[in-house]
Design brief:
Chain A is an alpha+beta fold and 112 residues long. Chain A is built from two helices and six strands, in the order βαββββαβ. The model of chain A has no long low-confidence stretch (mean pLDDT 94). The chains are: A alpha+beta (112), B mainly alpha (443).
C-alpha cells in the first residue's frame, strides 16, 4: 500500500476526484492548505499598501492505494491537475505499513 | 407650504384680536393657539425616517465597513467599539450633550449652549426647538443624537487594533461632550461660526473634519501598530466593507437630505447632489487607483464613495448637480492621494484612513461649498456667483474646528492615558484584541 499525497490548484480538485474515482478508488481525504514552491507568492495592494503574500492557497489530497495501482493513480492526478502553468503542484508517494477499517476491523488492502 | 403655515398663524392671530373685543377668556385661548408652534406631519414623518437612517449608518453600516478592513483577530473589537459608542453617546447626549449643543448659552452663546435642558428637561410632546420649528423637539433631539453618535464612531478607525477598551469608553464620553457638542453649537446652535456665515449643511465641518483631525491626533498619539510596514495587515473580508459602505450610502440620505429638517425641495436637491457626488467620487478614486496601482479595487471604489459622501455633506442643500459633480471628482482624487501617497510619505499609522477620507474629504467639501454654493438653492452665494469671500469664511470654519478638535482631543488623550492607559500591551496587540479584551473570537 502506498499513500499518494498530491498538492494541487484548488480549482482542479473536482477533475482530480473524478479521475481517481474512474480508476475505481473509493474515498480520499482533502485539506485546504497554504504553501509555496517555485511559484512563490503574489502581491496585494490595499489603499497603496503593498503586501507580499508568500503562501498561496492549495488543496492537499491524500489517498491510500494498493501498490499495483500507484502508477495509474499518479498518472491520473497529473493528467487531471496539469495546466502547464507554474504552481500546478506536486505529488509525493510514501509507503504505508497498515490499514484498518474501524467499523469492521478489516485490515490492509481489504480495508481500502 | 411655508406660506400656508404663515397664513395659518396670521389667521389665528387675527382671530385672537377679534375675539379679544368680544370675550377676554376666549381671546387668551386663541392667543395660546397662535403662539403654539405648528407641527408639520410631512416634515415630522421625513425626520423620523432620517433619524433611523442616520443611526443605521453607524450600526451596522460603519461597524461593517470598518470590521471588514481590520484583521480577523480584531474584528470583534472594532464592531464592539462602534456599538458601544452608539450607546455611550446616547446617554451622554440625553444627560447634557443636547443642551450644550442646541440651547441658548446666554453670555456664552457664541461658544456653548446652556444647562437649561439638562436631562432633557422641558422636552415634552408639544415642545419644539426654534432651529426646527415644524417637527417635535423629541425628533430633532434624536436626529441630532444620531449625528453625535457617528462622529466619535468614525474616529475609532484611526486607532483600530491597539486601543484599550476601558480607554475607549472614557475617551468617547469626554470627546462627545468636550469636542463635539461645542463645535455643533458653533455651527448649528447659534454659535460664532454659524453667525460668521460658515456654510455647513449637514456636518462637513462639525462631523467629518472634526472626526478626521481627532483621528489623526489619536493615531499619532498612540503610535503605529506593531508590525506596521512589515507585517501583512490586509483587510480580512472586503465583502463586509462593501455591505457597510452601501449602508452608509443609503443612510447618508437621512444625513444630508434630513439636514433640511423639512420634507421639501431643499431636501430633494440635497438627496440628488449626494447621489451624484458619491458616484463621481467612487469612479474618480477607482480610475486614479487603476492608473497608479494598475488595478481597480473593491476597497478603492468603496473608499471613493465614502470620500464623496463626506465632501458633499457640507455642500448638499447649497449646491446644484454640476457643483456636486466637481466636488465628487475632487474628493475622489484628493482622498485617494491623501490616503495612499501622502500618508506613506508622512509616515503616520491612521489604520483605516479616518483623516485621509474624512478629514481631507471634509476640508475639500467645506472649501468647495464656498465655491459652488447657489443662492437659488440655499440662499447663499459662492465664489462662482461672485461671493469670493465665502471661501475665506469657509476656511475660518475649518481652522476653528481643526484647532479645537486637535487641542481638545490631545488633552483628553493625555487625561485618559493617566487614568487607564490608552494602548494595549504588545503581547495583547499581537495575539489580537478580540480574545484578550472581549474573550471572544471569530473562528
Amino acid at each position: 500500500m502506498k499513500l499518494v499525497m498530491a498538492i494541487i490548484k484548488p480549482f482542479k480538485l473536482d477533475e482530480v476526484r473524478q479521475a481517481l474515482t474512474e480508476l475505481g478508488l473509493q474515498g480520499m481525504t482533502v485539506t485546504e492548505v497554504k504553501g509555496y514552491g517555485r511559484q512563490k507568492g503574489h502581491t496585494e495592494i490595499y489603499r497603496g499598501a503593498e503586501y507580499a503574500v508568500n503562501f498561496l492557497p492549495k488543496i492537499k489530497i491524500e489517498v491510500v492505494v494498493p501498490t499495483k495501482m500507484v502508477d495509474k493513480a499518479v498518472e491520473a492526478i497529473v493528467a487531471a491537475a496539469k495546466t502547464g502553468q507554474i504552481g500546478d503542484g506536486k505529488i509525493f508517494v510514501v509507503p504505508v505499513e497498515q490499514t484498518v477499517r474501524i467499523r469492521t476491523g478489516e485490515t490492509n488492502e481489504s480495508a481500502l | 407650504m411655508t406660506l400656508a403655515k404663515y397664513l395659518r398663524g396670521a389667521v389665528a392671530a387675527l382671530a385672537a384680536l377679534l375675539i379679544a373685543k368680544l370675550d377676554p377668556a376666549l381671546a387668551q385661548e386663541a392667543a395660546a393657539e397662535a403662539a403654539k408652534p405648528t407641527i408639520d406631519s410631512g416634515d415630522t414623518a421625513w425626520m423620523l425616517t432620517s433619524t433611523a437612517l442616520v443611526l443605521m449608518m453607524t450600526v451596522p453600516g460603519l461597524a461593517l465597513f470598518y470590521g471588514g478592513m481590520v484583521r480577523k483577530k480584531n474584528v470583534l473589537s472594532i464592531i464592539m467599539q462602534c456599538f458601544a459608542t452608539t450607546c455611550i453617546v446616547t446617554v451622554a447626549w440625553m444627560v447634557i450633550g443636547y443642551s450644550w449643543a442646541f440651547t441658548d448659552g446666554g453670555g456664552m452663546q457664541s461658544y456653548l449652549g446652556g444647562m437649561s435642558q439638562f436631562m432633557l428637561k422641558g422636552m415634552t410632546i408639544d415642545s419644539t426647538n426654534a432651529l426646527a420649528a415644524t417637527i417635535p423637539e423629541s425628533v430633532f433631539m434624536t436626529f441630532q443624537m444620531t449625528f453625535a453618535i457617528i462622529t466619535p464612531a468614525l474616529i475609532v478607525g484611526a486607532f483600530a487594533d491597539r486601543m484599550k477598551f476601558s480607554a475607549l469608553v472614557l475617551f468617547i464620553t469626554l470627546w462627545v461632550l468636550i469636542v463635539y457638542a461645542p463645535i455643533a453649537h458653533w455651527v448649528w446652535g447659534g454659535g460664532f461660526l454659524g453667525g460668521a456665515g460658515v456654510l455647513d449643511f449637514a456636518g462637513g465641518t462639525v462631523v467629518h473634519i472634526n472626526a478626521g483631525i481627532a483621528g489623526l491626533v489619536t493615531a499619532v498619539y498612540l503610535g503605529k501598530r506593531a508590525g506596521y510596514g512589515t507585517e501583512n495587515m490586509a483587510p480580512h473580508n472586503l465583502v463586509y466593507s462593501l455591505a457597510g459602505a452601501a449602508l452608509l450610502w443609503v443612510g447618508w440620505f437621512g444625513f444630508n437630505a434630513g439636514s433640511a429638517v423639512a420634507a421639501g425641495g431643499r431636501a430633494g436637491m440635497a438627496m440628488a447632489v449626494t447621489q451624484i457626488a458619491t458616484a463621481t467620487a467612487a469612479l474618480a478614486w477607482m480610475f486614479a487607483e487603476w492608473l497608479v496601482h494598475r488595478k481597480p479595487s473593491v476597497l478603492g471604489i468603496i473608499s471613493g464613495a465614502v470620500a464623496g459622501l463626506v465632501a458633499i455633506t457640507p455642500a448638499s442643500g447649497f449646491v446644484g448637480p454640476a457643483g456636486a459633480l466637481w466636488i465628487g471628482a475632487a474628493a475622489g482624487v484628493g482622498c485617494f492621494f491623501a490616503a495612499t501617497t501622502v500618508k506613506r510619505a508622512i509616515g503616520y499609522d491612521d489604520s483605516l484612513d479616518v483623516f485621509g477620507v474624512h478629514g481631507v474629504g471634509g476640508i475639500i467639501g467645506a472649501i468647495l461649498t464656498g465655491v459652488f454654493a447657489v443662492e437659488a438653492i440655499g440662499g447663499a452665494k459662492g465664489a462662482l456667483e461672485g461671493n469670493v469671500g465665502q471661501i475665506w469664511t469657509q476656511i475660518e470654519g475649518i481652522a476653528a474646528t481643526v484647532i479645537w478638535s486637535g487641542l481638545a482631543t490631545f488633552v483628553i488623550l493625555v487625561v485618559v492615558n493617566i487614568l487607564t492607559g490608552v494602548r494595549v500591551s504588545q503581547p495583547v496587540e499581537i495575539e489580537g484584541l478580540d480574545i484578550n479584551l472581549h474573550g471572544e473570537v471569530v473562528p
